[in-house]
Amino acid sequence: MAIYHLNVSSVGRKTQAAGTAGAHARYIMREEACSEILANQIPHGGNEARRWLNHEENHNTRVNGRVISKVRVALPLELTHAQNVAAIRELMDELTDGNRVPWAAAFHDKEGNDVSNPHVHIVIRDRAISSDEKYREGQRVVMFSANKEQCRKAGRGDNPVEFARKLWEEIGNKHLERAGHQSVLDRRTLQAQNVDRKPTIHEGQAAQAKEKKSEPLTSQDREVSTAFNSGGNLPEAYQTGDQATRRLNYASEIDQGRTRAAYNNEIRAENERRRLRAIELARQLAQQRRDAQQARLDAEIERHQARLSAQSAQHEAEARRAQDQRAQELRDRLGVDPTPALDFEEVSVPGAPPEPLTQRFFDAAAPPDPEAQPPDPAAPQAPAQGRQRQEAEPEPAWRRDLAKAARSARERAARDRDRDRDDDREPPSRPVLTNAAANEARRSPLRPFKRLARYQNPLAL
Known about the structure:
Layout: E1 6-12, H1 20-28, E2 36-40, H2 46-59, E3 66-74, H3 81-95, E4 103-108, E5 119-124, H4 148-153, H5 160-178, H6 205-212, E6 222-227, E7 243-248, H7 250-254, H8 260-334, H9 339-343, H10 357-364, H11 397-424, H12 435-442, H13 447-454
Antiparallel strand pairs: 1-3, 2-4, 3-5, 4-5, 6-7
Helix pairs in contact: 1-2, 3-5
């Protein structure tokens, strides 16, 4: 994320010494620090700008009026110098409503620390240059020193500084996106951004130099005086009249015996601990999400297996019902006792080994043998076995014919099986065929039919 910084301060004729505004302009425009200057109605160059501002302060400013507004903006490191210049030019055009007031911008990105910390100093003389249909000459446009009612009337909201901060956020993000960067500017505080990090404070070059040289640093209390703001932007305690003062207790309340560098080191250590805690918390949350996802997958697998089991049971039940229906239709057509079919048990036929019920149906479907002789009624009958019922009356002739046909079919099937086993055994005196003879034998047109006849249904013979 790009670093966002926009600070607004002022130089007043009553709150600062005479010539402060011109001295500030000459300082920010010095050649050794400034890489480029943009100006509108303010002369280029530090000395020329200083003389112009001194004249404005002495001749065109009230006794308690604001001479200039100072704006400091941090430039995104992701943008080039030309891109930053274009962004600041657009910001000032929007902020001054089409360059209606004098302003100057000095870019500090030339050398030293400014290379890694590019920024721009802006000086605004908030007085309209000339009269037009919207503003009269000398009227305020930027409204940094106006009250809430005047700001609302000018379309700047309740807080003109917040209006400028939001404007730079929008323009900076637009130029970052145009340059193809993913970084964004965010004017909100770290707490508003839900960032668990404490902000550090500004140390300053003098304090950093003394810290490097291990020179002792002492904190001193200061009294700050500020002009009365008729708009009510200052705290109520400071609005005691035309002049308000307050005491800053740096030694006892703010610094508490620590240097700014030491305080920042404590803040950085605390931020590092928070970062590690955040990483651990993120790892735990990720593990919890993975566990929850795995639990959902396991539950889905169990539900899928349950559905498959239910479908399988349903298919088995449907297949059993269809099999029962086909068996019932076959029993109705052949007139066979349906009692054995209900239990799907093996039944016994007199004079034959036990057979499955299905084989009995196939045997029953075989055509009767015309050469079969009716059994002798005087011959002794074998006792009934299994679950076959004992019949009191003589067995019908068609039933005897059916049993004989079944026996004949079984005998033919047994002979075919014996013949197949004999064919599979190669006799020792069999001559060895050459490759040509073997291929010819394999291509014999009778070979497929012979092989098929071995495995044909005996009932079809």
